[in-house]
């Protein structure tokens, strides 16, 4: 084991870690901004459905970030893939909310605490994240 090598590359680890955490926070903030209700307040009041939905969105983003970190050529490449993932997840949410379930307002169902809908939406976000992550290749 060459300790010198690890010490020389530790700065790269810190840079990618910091950048990824910032991208994660930006993505989570954007997800929260497009949500028509206060996730913080509903989670504080014990709404499990909202918690599951938000956790799924965050997990989907982390899956993509993980893949982007492994595949990226540089930090700009990492940031581009992160923003692509955010955009894809937003588009998918809108498609599911307004096209596939026209007769059901999923946002209202999650806000009311419908755990099944929250779990479904969170799960779909993870699945989309896996697909986007697998698609990142060179």
Automatic annotation (TrEMBL):
PANTHER family: UPF0719 INNER MEMBRANE PROTEIN YJFL
Highest taxon listed in the record's lineage: Bacteria
Species annotation: Anaerobacillus isosaccharinicus
Transmembrane annotation, as ranges: 13-34, 54-73, 79-101, 113-136
Pfam family, one: DUF350
Keyword Cell membrane set for record: yes
Membrane-topology annotation of the record: Multi-pass membrane protein
Main subcellular location: membrane
Membrane keyword on record: yes
Protein name: DUF350 domain-containing protein
Localization (cell): Cell membrane
Keywords noted in UniProt: Cell membrane, Membrane, Transmembrane, Transmembrane helix
Recorded family membership: Belongs to the UPF0719 family.
InterPro entries noted in UniProt: DUF350
One Gene Ontology cellular component: plasma membrane
């Amino acid at each position: 084991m060459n300790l010198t090598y690890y010490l020389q590359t530790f700065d790269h680890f810190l840079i990618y870690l910091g950048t990824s955490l910032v991208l994660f926070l930006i993505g989570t903030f954007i997800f929260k901004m497009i949500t028509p209700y206060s996730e913080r307040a509903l989670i504080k009041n014990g709404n499990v459905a909202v918690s599951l939905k938000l956790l799924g969105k965050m997990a989907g983003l982390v899956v993509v970030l993980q893949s982007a970190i492994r595949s990226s050529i540089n930090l700009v490449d990492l940031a581009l893939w992160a923003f692509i993932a955010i955009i894809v997840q937003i588009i998918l949410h809108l498609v599911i909310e307004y096209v596939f379930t026209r007769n059901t307002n999923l946002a209202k169902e999650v806000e009311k605490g419908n755990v099944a809908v929250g779990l479904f939406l969170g799960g779909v976000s993870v699945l989309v994240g896996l697909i986007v992550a697998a698609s990142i290749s060179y």
